[in-house]
Structure prediction request, 492 residues.
Amino acid sequence: MTAIRTGPRLQSWADVLVPIGFAGAAALVGLAIAGGKVTHIAIVLGGLLSLVLLQMPAVAMWLVLVGSLAIIGPVAFFIPALDKIPWLFALLTLFLAGASVIYAATMNRSANARMPAFIPLFAAFIAYAAASILWSDGMLNEGASGLKRVAQGTGVMFALATYPFASKNVRRWILLILVISIAHLPIALYQRLELAQVLEGGADAIVGLLELDQRGRGASGVLALMQMLVAGAIVAFARESLLKWPVAVFLIGLVLAPLIFSEVNVIFILAPLVVITAYADLIRKRPMLLVFGLGIFAAGFVMLGSLYLVWQQSAWAGGEQISMERRLENVIAYNFGDRGYNNQGDLNRKTVFTYWADNHGLQNPDEWAFGHGVGSTNLFGDDSVPVLAVRHGGKSLGLSTISQYLWELGIVGTAIFLFAWWSAFTTGLKNLRRSTPGYWRALDRSLIIAIVVLGIGLVYNASLSGILSGQVLAGLVLGLIAWRTRFSEPSR
Prediction:
């Protein structure tokens, strides 16, 4: 890795400032520990660890990926005193983003191409979110908390877009995601058998190694997105003959098994989209293949779906067993009807958008265009109800990522966000078109599948704008697209 260029004058300043920095760091650590607040300790340690890892970005990436996707969930649940440990890794991602900016400004350029457009678009989105604090309807702490949630996880994306990581590191990180996806299975089985029946969240407590609180509210949505995009990647690698199909089918079974234990019905939407995206090039050349393939897929899908629903006859929520008929009724009511997500008067995945449209227009063009300020929906904040939610009877205004940004950042902020995602998708398509058969083409196709899966996640729930594991996963996908554009070797 190229080192930061330092001249004699800069070196002389460093001789003075480094000891002062260590003394200040020691004082901060002492104050944080003396205060006894886990959050403060996590902030200080996260910041210091980030500074130490400034010139070791690959190590920082390992820590962020393993910590966010495999450590913070079990540790925070089984050791309640450490429930603020996500702060440590959230701050590490933020400092990784800062280190990326420093690297881009001070390092020798080694990229093969210019920065893809979606990276500065995401940076502009974060800057816009920060500016929205100025006109926020909420308190300053709500704005600061909201800005942290917007920015956390983006450090992975910015680092991959900036640092020329070696190909071997990228291959290992991709293998790590597969290993974590498989490791979810035994934990999910335990959560199904032991936790879902006794915790308030019911099947929402089935999250594998991802985040889960003491009441059973967890990142089940992130689990569904992660497992589906990994399954799609396995198909992509099998298409390139990098995996034998019997091995691929076995791996897909291991990866998707945790979703059978949960109640994440979005998989019925994601599964056909994954298959269509994985074979989009063949379908375009031979449309009849789509008809034939969809027929076979539909038969298998109906069979597996029936088994899934029969299994869900034993579903539990808050200690109460739910029948298959009631489950189907709830799914339809929550997603296509008017039943509220948390109670009868709340919003759901459909009404959250119609309710926003009913409350924004010519009567308040500034709030329609620019929103009410970042953090004003506060869905993943503390237990306090934000000012905006109080005005609307405590409704779940930020039920999905897109609805959250419509309320908080308006049409302007949401448009920037969606345009950045679209730009990432088109950049990924360009990478796929110019890649040659082999590992990297399989990765390019996997990233396109992942973008499609995460795109559904943007309207499915708010995990990609408020849960660290989901944001790190999204940052990894977006960052790999940028890395493929700028640094990757040609496919062989």
Summary: Residues 401-434 form the longest helix (34 residues).
